[in-house]
Amino acid sequence: MVKNILIVDDESDIRELLEITLSRMDLEPYAVASLNEAKQILAEQSIDLCLTDMKLPDGDGIELVSHIQDQYPNIPAAVITAYGSMETAIKALKAGAFDFVSKPIDLNILRKLVSGALKLSSPKNDVKTEISSSAKTRLIGSSSEMNKLNKTISKLARSQAPVYIRGESGVGKELVAKEIHLQGPRHDQAFIPVNCGAIPTELMESEFFGHLKGSFTGASNDKQGLFEAAQGGTLFLDEVAELPLHMQVKLLRAIQERAIKPIGKQEEINVDVRILSATHKDLNQEVEQGNFRQDLFYRINVIELPVPPLRNRTEDIEQLTVHILEKIKNSYELGNLTIDNSAMEKLTSYSFPGNIRELENILERAAALCDQDIITIDDIQLTEESSSLQGTSELLVTNSEESSISLNKDQLEEYLEDKEKKAITAALEQTRWNKTAAAKLLGISFRQLRYRLKKLDLE
């Protein structure tokens, strides 16, 4: 079935250019010059996409976008803005526009925009099925907080507006970003997550934009940057607040111009990438303190999406626990791993300052400690208990023959893991790699030994 495209622009040459371009894409254009004419076509015809100029003789494009959002929410609308008018484009995105294209119109960019937008239009059921079948990540929970979040995600997936995902550490901001990607028209393209705090400052420009061979000392080969890797898809900037100020400037320009310049390359490369970002920090506060550029915050925070902490959706804890235990069971081949009622009650009454990530860690620990594949209340070690155990571990290190070692938390975990590896390896060698005998020698169950072997990469 031929798709119908509504073009709204009071300049006859623009209307003609768009009509010719869309006709060559085997689309049926309906071109009008005013807001009232556009509303009339929408009422009379089945429209699959609307392209509207911002300035119209009897109104503006944002008014038309709002009208479509209200009366025809399944029709994606894109706006045509004046060159360099990013603020106007952002207003349109906030009003619900799918995307924008700037004058003079780049026809390649226009074609990509139209193709992407039409993935969201009729036939609705086919699109929904296609997107659902491609999705591999699903958010767990049926609380009112999660229902609200999922509805917002579905709405945001239909737009190309940059989204700033706000939430505490461990709430699952990357999963939310991936869900936005998977439910949108870019679902069949790359989703590239990047932890901005994990990239060394001196390598950031190369990592984001790429470089040519020989462009600097150590550049032995051409390197594709993250923007190019995400071409046509989504780039998720996790912990975006960790970007240094000089890199914030370069990122701002890439987002504004939709173009990048790899190190050593003379020409810019156009990039078609949706930007999603997140941080556990308060970006407003970071802006006030001068740590984050206000203009970049304005660009990435077109729409803000808060993700609720786990303590605000305790009714989801049981469902999350079942899901996480299934993953642990499959990863470590632990058989029929379950949790009893007393242990579950202990979890549901806990506030989880570390959110879902903390729940995962608690359950992994419990899986290693429990007997007969049943996690009991004694196997559940919460934050206060874990702190006590850590203090005991530090005391053991201090009192050992290596008492001169001063360790921070990360070093302590690495040190203890190394000691555990050596103890397990020694037991296995002593029993000639008889795992049952080694477990008995170590004073743990066979299942616990199998879990530790997998966890410590000793298999």
Defining key terms:
459 residues; alpha/beta; 5-stranded parallel beta sheet; 20 helices; 16 strands; 49% helix
Task: State the helix count.
Answer: 20
Task: Extract low-pLDDT stretches.
Answer: 122-137, 386-406
Instruction: Tell me the helix content.
Output: 40-55%
Oligomer: single chain
Main beta sheet = 5 strands, parallel
Q: Rg, please?
A: 27 Å
User: Judging from the principal axes of the Cα atoms, what is the shape?
Assistant: elongated
Strand order of the largest sheet: 2-1-3-6-7
**Strand proportion:** 5-15%
What structural class results from the helix and strand content?
Answer: alpha/beta
Instruction: Give the strand tally.
Output: 16
Please tell me the overall pLDDT: 86
Structure description:
With 459 residues, the chain is of the alpha/beta class. The protein is 49% helix and 13% strand. It contains 20 helices and 16 strands. It has helices spanning 12-24, 35-44, 61-71, 86-95, 107-118, 124-134, 144-157, 173-183, 204-209, 226-229, 245-257, 283-288, 294-300, 317-332, 341-348, 355-369, 383-399, 409-430, 435-442, 446-455, and strands at residues 4-8, 28-32, 49-53, 55-56, 59-60, 77-81, 99-102, 163-166, 191-195, 234-238, 259-260, 269-270, 274-279, 303-306, 338-339, 374-375. A five-stranded parallel sheet has the order 2-1-3-6-7, with helices on both faces. α1 links the parallel β1 and β2 (28-32). The longest helix is centred in the last third of the chain and has 22 residues, at 409-430. The radius of gyration is 27 Å and the shape is elongated. It starts with a strand and ends with a helix. The model is unreliable at 122-137 and 386-406 (pLDDT under 50).
